[in-house]
Amino acid sequence: MTRRVIVAANWKMNGDLALVDSMLLGLKDLESSNVEVIICPSFPYLSELNQKIKAANLNEIIHVGAQTVSKFFDGAHTGEVSTNMLNDLSIKYVIVGHSERRSVYNETSEQVASKVHAVLKAGLSPILCIGETEEERSSGKIESVLMSQIQPVIDEIGIKNFSDVIISYEPVWAIGTGNPASSAMAQETHYFIRQLIAKQCDQVAANISLLYGGSVNAANCEELFAQPDIDGGLIGGASLQAEQFKIICSAAKGK
Ligand code: PGA
Questions:
Q1: Which parts of the chain register pLDDT below 50?
Q2: CATH number of 5-251
Q3: What is the DSSP string of the chain?
Q4: Residue ranges of the domains in the chain?
Q5: Which of 63, 98, 117, 190 is an active site residue?
Q6: Which residue from 6, 10, 39, 248 has its CB within 8 A of the most atoms of ligand 1, so it is best to mutate?
Q7: Is 170 one of the catalytic residues?
């Protein structure tokens, strides 16, 4: 098994029906390649985006993902969306544990682990976000922080199932700031993450896709994606413009 190369768009709470249309128009010439392209809009647009991708015959190239999901299967959880519902809409990917979910909505690593478990159980692919804050980096805690975000997931699902998880390393200080990690810094951290997993299973470490996220744009993506342990990216702001996003998807080709 070779590592999957993935470029995922995280629209966050941005975009509207007009963006769904303009994005697909902008990406209509995207060629089939080794890159799995995923667009994650807010819940209300999942179905429309998926249908329009199919109608445009882009469904082999572009996939749709959600930005979060409930750990519960069903029941009295007002406002939540289940894996079951995503399956019903043929949504196959879910971002889990984004730093905004962790910091603004107080999601703990244990809750994130339960969500990853629910996602895998439903046959969907989780994109697990991890990353340290500026303060954690400057106080030398990067490795312990990343470990504290990864280990509860491995404990919950087992190391073998961990190969079905896509990881996105997103240093919190680089998200939405216009200051990405340097390619050397990102590579160093990705290498560390892979070694951390290798301590538990070499094969899973070798095969798992590690994306980088945090101020990736059309100008810096090539250098980031050229790093040996970076298998693609999770893109926020730059994924709201079809032209930029297309350049980023193309830069991941041939990895
Ligand atoms: P950004 O966001 O590309 O706007 O920094 C990335 C993310 O939060 O996933």
A1: none
A2: 3.20.20.70
A3: -PPPEEEEEE-TT---HHHHHHHHHHTTTPPP-SEEEEEE--GGGHHHHHHHHHHTT-TTTEEEEES---SSSSSS-TT---HHHHHHTT--EEEES-HHHHHHS---HHHHHHHHHHHHHTTPEEEEEE---HHHHHTT-HHHHHHHHHHHHHHHH-TTGGGGPEEEE--GGGTTSS-PPPHHHHHHHHHHHHHHHHTT-HHHHHH--EEEESS--TTTHHHHHTSTT--EEEESGGGGSHHHHHHHHHHTTT-
A4: 5-251
A5: 98
A6: 10
A7: yes
